[in-house]
TrEMBL record:
Protein species of origin: Streptomyces xiangluensis
Residue stretches in coiled coil: none
Protein name (database record): TetR/AcrR family transcriptional regulator
Recorded superkingdom: Bacteria
InterPro entries given in the database record: Homeodomain-like_sf (IPR009057), HTH_TetR (IPR001647), Tet_transcr_reg_TetR-rel_C_sf (IPR036271)
Length: 188
């Protein structure tokens, strides 16, 4: 049996974390098995246990990677716009779009991991990673009037409800009415 080089092992780990980050947001952490995850990247379950001590360790790494992707997205909004208020408005436009609703695997980890964090009482390391990511998102969304938490809570709640009702007129109405409320001159 041939051994995998250290460089290949690192690449396999990176691919596993990236796939887990996407699949956990799409299906939930209990909606994807280790075997299915590894199969999705063309590796065996044995390879998983050479890389990670447990599925919980992978969940923590996948959540951290997903929030890293969110940080890059937020930075791209700042780069693309003249000021942070305009960038925040553009993020709201994107967040409350059908595109974001329909692509949870590459969407916001705040929404993508929310249900799992609420249902996994033993996931302390993951919960800490999640909480730090939510705080960073809220800080980016903050205004002179608030710390950003009301805005994040509204965005996440709206996208979760829109995803839960996708394919119905209500889903579109949730996106539109939340967008209107958040972009009104004196929104939340």
């Amino acid at each position: 049996m041939s051994r995998v080089s250290q460089a290949q092992a690192l690449e396999n780990r990176r691919r596993a974390v990236a796939a887990a980050s996407q699949l956990f947001r799409e299906r939930g952490v209990n909606g994807i098995s280790v075997a299915d995850l590894m199969k999705s990247i063309g590796l065996t379950t044995g390879g998983f246990y050479k890389q990670f001590p447990s599925k919980e360790a992978l969940i923590a790494e996948a959540a951290q990677a997903a929030f890293g992707d969110l940080d890059l997205l937020l930075a791209s909004f700042d780069t693309a716009h003249d000021d942070h208020d305009t960038a925040r408005g553009a993020l709201i436009d994107f967040y409350l779009s059908a595109e974001h609703r329909d692509q949870p695997g590459t969407g916001c980890p705040t929404a993508g991991f929310a249900g799992d964090m609420a249902r996994e009482p033993t996931a302390e390391e993951v919960r800490e990673t999640y909480a730090a990511g939510v705080q960073e998102f809220a800080a980016w969304m903050s205004t002179d009037a608030n710390d950003g938490l009301p805005m994040v809570a509204t965005l996440v709640g709206a996208i979760l409800l829109a995803r839960a009702t996708a394919g119905t007129a209500l889903s579109e109405k949730i996106l539109e009415s939340t967008h209107k409320a958040l972009t009104a001159p004196h929104g939340p």
